[in-house]
Amino acid sequence: MADVEEPEKKRRRTADPTDKMAVDGGHRNSGCDWDGRWNHVRKFLERPGPFTHPDFEPSTESLQFLLETCKILVIGAGGLGCELLKNLALSGFRLIHVVDMDTIDVSNLNRQFLFRPKDVGRPKAEVAADFINTRIPGCKVVPHFKKIQDFDDSFYRQFHIIVCGLDSIIARRWMNGMLISLLSYEDGVLDPSSIIPLIDGGTEGFKGNARVILPGMTACIDCTLELYPPQINFPMCTIASMPRLPEHCIEYARILQWPKENPFGDISLDGDNPDHIQWVFDRSQERAAEFSITGVTYRLTQGVVKRIIPAVASTNAVIAASCAMEVFKIATSAYIPLNNYLVFNDVDGLYTYTFEAERKENCSACSQVPQDLQFPPSAKLQEVLEYLTENASLQMKSPAITTTLEGKNKTLYLQSVKSIEERTRPNLCKTLKELGLSDGQELAVADVTTPQTVLFKLNFTT
Amino acid sequence: MAATQASKEQKYDRQLRLWGDHGQETLENAHVCLVNATATGTEILKNLVLPGIGAFTIVDGHTVSGEDVGNNFFLSNNSIGKNRAQAATELLQEMNSDVSGNFVEESPDKLLDNDPEFFHRFTIVIGVHLPESTCMRLGSVLWSASVPFLVCKTYGLIGYMRLVVQEHTVIESHPDNALEDLRLDQPFSEFKNHIQSYDLDSMDKKDHSHTPWIIIVAKYLEKWLSEHNCQAPKNYKEKEAFRQIIREGVRKNENGVPEDEENFEEAVKNVNTALNPTKVPTALEDLFNSEQCNNITSQTPAFWVMLRAVKEFVHNEGSGSLPVRGTIPDMIADSQKFISLQNIYREKAMQDTAAVSKHVERLLQSVGKPPESISEKDIKLLCKNASFLRVVRCRSLAEEYSVDSVNKDEITSCMDSPDSEMVFYLMLRAVDRFYQQHSRYPGVYNYQVEEDISKLKLCVNSLLQEYSLNVNIKDDYIHEFCRYGAAEPHTVAAFLGGSAAQEAIKIISHQFVPFSNTFIYNAMSQTSATLHL
Predict the structure, then answer these.
(1) Sequence-distant contacts of B346-349: CB under 8 A, at least 24 apart
(2) Beta partners for B519?
(3) Of A182, A128, A180, nearest to A155 (Cα)?
(4) Which of A393, A431, B390, B438 could form a disulfide with B170 if both were Cys (CB 3.0 to 4.6 A apart)?
(5) So what CATH class is A60-205+311-338?
(6) How does pLDDT run across A106-134, given as a tens digit for each residue?
(7) Displacement of CA A256 from its chain's centroid (Å)
(8) How far apart are CA A219 and CA B67, in angstroms?
(9) Spans of all domains in chain B
(10) A82 given a catalytic annotation
């Protein structure tokens, strides 16, 4: 990886005057520190060493930078988020914002240690911030009980580093896209001061990974989309007519029986409602008995309906620690950062693997290369839609396709608004030629996986 | 009582899906001892308290310093001057009311002087930041008492763990990519009878395309064997020919175009693994040949009695093979064909397990123990996991440190790459030596950093000399370890906290496989290594 100028040290971000002073008692920075408080951290900031980053200069000012100026955004206040907040706070970071749209659930308590039984139902971001600010004097975590999509670029621009502890690939891609949209280019050259490093962590059972992304410079989330294979759902004919596994019986109750019987009125199945799960469990057992299938349990039912991923404290601790270590390295130039992907697995002993994920030349998120769509003019719009969702490098969720025809903006297909979906649905069966599209036509595609529309160029094949 | 159980099931739901209710039970019956409530120590305990271990006891004679509070989430600044064991217990205990927390305001050295048997009561002892002499003393007591010992240390940006356990058996290792146990190379009679009922050529279209691939491969294999002198396809050429025969078995429509038969596609795809010869894994053969397996006494733990019974089965009813596992993967098939095939395997597994049970009974009787000493449930679990049984044995610290038995080969071969993680192990040993000589760690105060480099280098050289280790340690590492000044940055402590806690859980639950025997984490490069010392 090329030695990056550390813009954070050069730029002085001014503190946002609307930031709340989180701790009552009005402790201003050094006023609440006690003797020796930062000894463990100082040694890495004030002493020269043989393995430091080439840009590193020992100084007592580095600690002040962490305590007073460096602004970090933590996305997610769950399994990884709680650990990240603790790790950052105990490493000297004080200006921390945390975003999480969820409230606390009982099943979080086995690992999200900032929450207690009495907190169930309250917003994670707020409870987490309160706990940290109370336990770590001087720390000023600002909570946001919101979705990441509720903020625009002006919010994200204020941070030196952003670290994610998300449980959704869609959200990761959105965040990734947001930071890419903040990049500025002058005469085709990337302005380093517009780069906000993104540290991303993920865990699942006893496996986890941590990666460092410098948007515009290193591999981004979408460059390595194939590392996240799409979730496999059971084929409908298996569920509908030839179940073999207990899971098939559960999906039958969830997908086919529930909408048909509406046991609690015309409402969707709520995985968090025990009565709903009980109903699905009962129906699943009946179906299983019909086909002599064993193994349907309440726990399995809940797991299938909610797509539960097993989780423990230890894996989250390891991955969040790796991420926080990288935040510290980047903020202080103490050491050369991870380049750029760490994989961890402790099922059998402890296994780590570190490698450099490569940028994709034509990445739809970060390459600035216009995306190619190759179709014959006789292809139907439906085929284009399927390509956008099924292609391993794109994996869009519900793309909305618009274009300019005769100087006017035209929506070809949009799924997320019912009235527009109904109006544009007939277009799916029309050919690209019938829709008036020509060779070289630009299509703008919007999707939940990215905050900016992706431009595609239509390339007619014979 | 029912309410508490239900709420515990909810609280622990995400981890119960990993180690089950029986795994959770072992945790709730465990009593963990932590020596020294440094940041590393409390982070490890945090990751044990949250999943609900029964109890913990912290042994620590230190008083809380300002520096301690700075990197430790479980010490607050109003506990400065108080005993560290007590202060940390409060904030750890508070995280989970299911856990009972205790503390002993004593140094481990004092306890070892006055009451070494104090440590015998624990399921596992975790020793953090122990000076070498204390570590060796404690190690010796725990080794004699067969109490597992996990030594952990965060030193600058280096994390270190050493597991010390004489013999740790694992029935449920939960391997990531296990091969199926289908026995297609040596079909048992019930399976052979079952596939007789299938006549692929005369089946109707729907049945043909919903026949499990296992049956397809078995039928075509029968034909191949009769035409090839009972020799199964061996090399790539033969296997490809076999695959082609199966492809040609796909029904064609009236225009001669092959139909879409996904089950036949699955059969072709699985030919390679399906033709794998069934055999007892080498690791298991080694266990069969071990002392514990062959010398069954009334003291022999259940694991070895059951293993011996499996060995007897292999040499008798199994005709050289393990008891059938009894599971098959999901595959394209109609419900009835799949379930009936699955039942063939399940019933065979039950039969084999019953035969193993008889051997267990016989063995128990031969050493004067009642047959109920080992439950059917345990025998069934072991039989199902027969291919994946693991035994972990770690050398004692005394063996690691003795000049006569030091693992020179491991050290010198790793150090062929002078930047391998082994260099950190050697530096930690050198730093321990420094502490023994100077009663302090190198470079703690700024003014000491420079002058301690040469002192630490002397320790490095004396270490290498004492063990006759012909390796070279770059000066940069000696400088770096002086620079660390025995700092314990929280992020490194947290990494080790997660790693060590999970290893402790493996020891307590006997599920998943612990590391053996030394783990080094380098936070500078975010790399790690497991060493055998």
Answers:
(1) B347/B190, B348/B188, B348/B190, B348/B191, B348/B324, B349/B323, B349/B324, B349/B325, B349/B383, B349/B384
(2) B161, B530
(3) A182
(4) B390
(5) alpha beta
(6) 999 999 999 999 999 999 999 999 999 99
(7) 31
(8) 39
(9) 1-173+488-531, 189-275, 282-392, 397-484
(10) no
B526 CB within 8 Å of a chain A CB: yes
Tally of helices (H runs) and strands (E runs) in chain B: 23, 10
How many CB atoms neighbour CB A272 within 10 A?
A: 11
Query: Do B505 and B51 contact (CB within 8 A), yes or no?
Result: yes
Using a CB-CB cut-off of 8 Å, the residues of chain A touching B492 are 321, 325
Q: What's the mean per-residue pLDDT of chain A?
A: 91
Q: Minimal Cα distance from A246: which residue of B?
A: B330
Region A53-64 average pLDDT: 95
Give this prediction's pTM: 0.93
In chain B, residues with a C-beta closer than 8 Å to the C-beta of A113 are: 46, 50, 95
Kindly report the CA angle at A205 between A204 and A209, in degrees rounded to 5? 45
Q: What was the pLDDT predicted at A127?
A: 98
> Which residues, 6 or more positions from B109, have their beta carbon under 8 angstroms from its beta carbon?
B134, B137
- State the amino acid at position A155 in one-letter form: F
> pLDDT tens digits, residue range A149-176?
999 999 999 999 999 999 999 999 999 9
Mean pLDDT of the region A269-286: 96
Question: What span, in angstroms and rounded, lies between the C-alpha atoms of B94 and B114?
Answer: 31
Distance CA B243, CA B220 (A): 10
DSSP structural state of residue B385? T
User: What's the pLDDT tens digit per position in A184-231?
Assistant: 998 889 999 999 999 999 999 999 999 999 999 999 999 999 887 777
Which residue in A47, A111, A345 is closest to B449 by CB distance?
A47
Amino acid, res. A203:
T
Contact B387, B284 (CB under 8 A): yes
Catalytic residue of the set A237, A249, A323, A429:
A237
Please, which pLDDT band fits residue A19 given cuts at 50, 70 and 90?
very low
Which amino acid is residue A228, in one-letter code? Y
Percent with pLDDT over 90 in chain B: 98
Report the complex ipTM.
0.97
The answer to whether the CB of A69 falls within 8 A of the CB of A158 is: no
Average pLDDT over residues B308-322: 98
Asked, as a colleague might, if the bond just before A340 is cis with ω within 30 of 0, I would say yes
Give the residue among A140, A152, A134 at the shortest CA–CA distance from A28. Answer: A140
Question: Which class is domain A236-306?
Answer: mainly alpha
Q: What is the mean pLDDT of residues B104-122?
A: 98
User: How many beta-carbon contacts under 8 Å exist across A and B?
Assistant: 226
Residue with tokens 């659930």: A105
**CATH 3.10.290.20 residue window(s) in chain A:** 371-460
B1-173+488-531: in CATH 2.70.150.10: no
> CATH says A371-460 is which class?
alpha beta
Task: Please give the Cα distance from A371 to B101 (Å, whole number).
Answer: 59
Looking at chain B, which residue has its C-alpha nearest residue A120?
A: B11
What is the distance in angstroms between the Cα of B17 and the nearest Cα belonging to chain A? 6
> Would the CB atoms of A111 and B175 count as touching at under 8 Å?
no
Q: Which string of DSSP letters, residue by residue, matches B245-274?
A: HHHHTS-B-TTSPBP--HHHHHHHHHHHHH
pLDDT tens sequence across B400-431: 999 999 999 999 999 999 999 999 999 999 99
pLDDT of residue B1: 58
